[in-house]
Write a structure and sequence with these properties.
Number of strands: 11
Number of helices: 14
CATH class of the largest domain: Alpha Beta
CATH topology of the largest domain: Rossmann fold
Order of helices and strands: HEHEHEHEEHHEHEHHEHEHEHEHH
Structural class: alpha/beta
Radius of gyration: 21 Å
Largest sheet: 6 strands, parallel
Strand content: 5-15%
Helix content: 25-40%
Length: 343
């Protein structure tokens, strides 16, 4: 979702008078809600069986009545392809995917292999039939508007945790749901504890998705075990944030640390400095897509013949692209960036 927002901006710039509608499922809707380049966001609840089919047909009729001139399927899955076809647009652009390509009037090749090419550029391929030039992160960055209510909610939570507005915040998103992108809990705990010890003014905020909360709790417990009680109080868990609140938190943060997952790219829509942890994936494919004047640094283990991989089977069997990524390297990168911010 975040990777499609540069294309949304480009379409608006090319077709200034067009009426632009984005169709999205509820969990990702906050990414485009409030996007200044869109006229309308249609949120589609996903259901299966007969009720889901009835809902899809009803939405298809709604889209058809709107008489859209052009529909672009950025997702490429079966559901999105069906809705694209049901829209009845005279021009329907999508990836040339086996079994679904016939639903589009214009099909764009999509190689199956892992390419050293950014995901935004892969999305941008769908604009090639319209004559668009190459994507540029300086002029078409990823975007997600800050929701004012979410910002107020975050401010209240920070205040309730005793965090003053002048405290430097380091946000660490602990993602552990996918074993191929799971940096060891012990490594996270070490970085959390050391960031607190090195500057008493700092507050380290831990965020996590619903599937990662147990791992986040374990990391928090291990980090606190390395600290004195007063120091441990500088670690704050905020693992129940909505997507809009997570984005709002970035506006308060001095640094974001996290793996190659959705929250890292939500962070990229702000100006917060970023330290990205890359295991089986390569920064060239998924580094923050934004102005090069903003600080974004990638940390990973170089020289592994198995990296990148398809994330279906760890050939060595020990997830060495993550287990050998040293906390000291992450901490060194984080400290350097934080010190730059103090100058």
């Amino acid at each position: 979702m975040v990777f499609t927002t540069p294309a949304v901006r480009a379409i608006r710039e090319r077709f200034a008078d067009a009426y632009l509608t984005y169709v999205v499922e509820p969990h990702a809707a906050p990414v485009v809600t409030g996007n200044p380049h869109l006229d309308e966001v249609i949120v589609v609840s996903r259901s299966r069986g007969i009720s889901g089919l009835v809902a899809d047909v009803a939405l298809g009729r709604r889209l058809r009545r709107a008489r859209f001139d052009l529909t672009i399927d950025f997702h490429g899955g079966p559901h999105a392809a069906l809705l694209t076809w049901l829209s009845g647009s005279p021009v329907r652009i999508g990836y040339d995917t086996p079994g679904r390509g016939w639903m589009y009037t214009t099909r764009v090749p999509r190689p199956r292999g892992i390419r050293p090419r950014h995901a935004v550029e892969n999305q941008w391929d769908l604009l090639a039939p319209l004559g668009f030039d190459a994507a540029d992160p300086a002029t078409q960055p990823v975007e997600m508007a800050t929701d004012t209510e979410a910002l107020s909610a975050v401010d209240l939570r920070l205040s309730a945790a005793g965090i003053t507005p002048d405290a430097p915040l380091v946000v660490i998103h602990l993602s552990a749901g996918n074993p191929f992108r799971r940096w060891p809990i012990e490594a996270f705990a070490t970085v959390m504890a050391m960031l607190v010890l090195r500057d008493a003014r700092r507050r380290v905020i831990i965020t996590a998705g619903p599937s990662d909360r147990t791992a986040a709790s374990n990391a928090m417990a291990q980090a606190r075990a390395l600290l004195e009680p007063a120091e441990a109080g500088r670690l704050v868990s905020m693992d129940e944030l909505s997507l809009a609140e997570l984005r709002a938190l970035m506006d308060r943060a001095a640094l974001f640390i996290g793996g190659d997952s959705g929250p890292l790219h939500v962070a990229a829509t702000s100006t917060v400095p970023i330290v990205g942890l890359y295991g089986p994936t390569l920064p060239v494919r998924s580094q923050p897509w934004r102005s090069r004047e903003l600080i974004s640094e990638a940390v990973g283990v170089e020289g592994l013949p198995c990296r990148p991989c398809d994330q279906r089977r760890c050939i060595p069997g020990d997830f060495r692209c993550l287990t050998t990524l040293r906390p000291e390297l992450v901490l060194e990168t984080a400290e350097r960036i934080l010190q730059q911010g103090l100058r």
